[in-house]
Specification:
Blueprint lengths: L1 H11 L7 H19 L6 H20 L6 H23 L32 H30 L3
Helix pairs in contact: 2-3, 2-4, 3-5, 4-5
Length: 158
């Protein structure tokens, strides 16, 4: 019954009732947690900044679309909301790229950064330490790119 209600709410809404700012806030909180786990061995600052900027942009966007009456503009907003989900959901729930298969197992939040806590333990292994730093830098950059893409998408409606 709960699922039917939720589906009916989405299907009958003029503008889809998605609050992506909450997803951005969740991502920001997880990034802060991973930054602590890095214990000074890796900087997630660019991702933290991108997530913070996205959250602010999404709050403005969600406020601006509340009273839109034009059907064409509503369609554009709904397309934007769907595209935002396509960008944000994989960040928080996938290790791979958009079309990669993820196993049907529980993943930690922001699974691309799950190894962040391992850096401190590798401090005595210069080779392993550098390889993991490089891997984390690439994963952080993928996250920053996705967050920036999402921010650019909603700024059209600012």
């Amino acid at each position: 019954n709960t699922y039917v209600t939720a589906i009916c709410r989405v299907l009958n809404a003029d503008i889809y009732p998605f609050e992506h700012s909450k997803a951005a806030q969740e991502i920001l909180n997880y990034l802060r947690g991973y930054q602590e786990k890095c214990a000074g061995h890796f900087d997630l600052g660019p991702a933290l900044q991108a997530a913070s900027e996205l959250e602010a942009a999404l709050r403005r966007f969600e406020n601006n679309i509340k009273n839109v009456k034009d059907p064409n503009e509503r369609r554009e907003i709904n397309r934007c909301l769907i595209e935002l989900a396509r960008i944000l959901v994989p960040i928080n729930y996938s290790r791979g790229q958009r079309y990669d298969h993820d196993p049907a197992i529980s993943l930690p939040p922001l699974p691309r950064l799950e190894k962040a806590g391992e850096l401190a333990a590798l401090a005595g292994d210069p080779s392993g330490y550098r390889f993991l730093q490089t891997e984390l830098r690439r994963e952080r950059n993928k996250i920053v790119d996705a967050l920036d893409s999402a921010r650019n998408l909603v700024q059209r409606f600012a």
